[in-house]
Amino acid sequence: MLKIALVGVMAILLSMLAGSVKREYGFLVSLCAALLIFSFGLGKLRVIVDELRNLEQAIPLDREYGEMLLKMVGIAYLTQLAVNLSRDAGQGAVAGQISFVGKLSMLFLSLPVLKTLIETIGEMLR
Fold it and tell me: What is d(CA 95, CA 100) in angstroms, rounded to the nearest whole number?
């Protein structure tokens, strides 16, 4: 975590310095830093996936639920990254639309779980 914090602070300083020369340079520095920090996170993703597989073996659940959860987390992180980059570039309207579509994507992905939940509740009420 210390590495990530240092990269973030250095990126902010470099972005401010480069942005004073030309705004596009500051944005490029921010983009490179975001991708570098994201790559650090990908290493930890392997540990999370392994733990989810262990949990899946311990608890008899459908594999599709675990995959769905990972997809939703991925959508959330990618949406947040795109929103932050868009806002940093001064594109608030684009950031809002990316956020909206990300939320719709997660809702669409969760529809099978919602359907199963409603069916289960319906069976219990009968």
Answer: 9
- Taken in order 11, 16, 20, 24, the sign of the CA dihedral is positive
Q: Which residue has the tokens 């975001």?
A: 34
User: How many residues are listed for the chain in this entry?
Assistant: 126
Let me know: does 8 contact 30? Beta carbons within 8 Å: no
Residue 1 burial (C-beta neighbours within 10 Å; 0-12, 13-18, 19+): exposed
- Of 121, 82, 117, nearest to 102 by C-alpha is 82
**89-117 tens-digit pLDDT:** 788 898 999 999 999 999 998 888 888 88
pTM equals 0.61
